[in-house]
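WARN no homologs supplied; continuing
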Amino acid sequence: MHKGVFPILLSTGLFWLTACSHTERIVRKMTWSTETPGSWKKPLPEGAVRFTFVQAPRFHAGLNVPGLKEHLQTANKTEVAVAFEIQCKRRNFALIRIRSVDGLQVQSDATNMWMEIEDFGLRTDSGPFPGACWY
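OK structure emitted
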């Protein structure tokens, strides 16, 4: 291999690895509840909140952050803005986090956040994040 070829191949490879990943920030309107739906197999953990996407009601997100339930109850709103941070890798979701709920900054991770779908059957909806990670 020529001396000049390796640095070019290395820089091209690094470009593609970094160019194929990016972070998107998306805000969605969601309803919230502390009730466990009858279709769910496990009850919500104590203090957890279940969010339902207004635009995609088959999709839900759960979050168990201290003080969140009380914040939402005090706000007395049925719909709130939830800010998501989505890390994309090669046009796929690699990691989804909730960053704020109704203006309250939260830290979500795999230990206190989860997402669920009611029915895995074939549907025509595009889910809660249509178009995300596709550029």
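Helices lie at 5-19, 68-75.
OK
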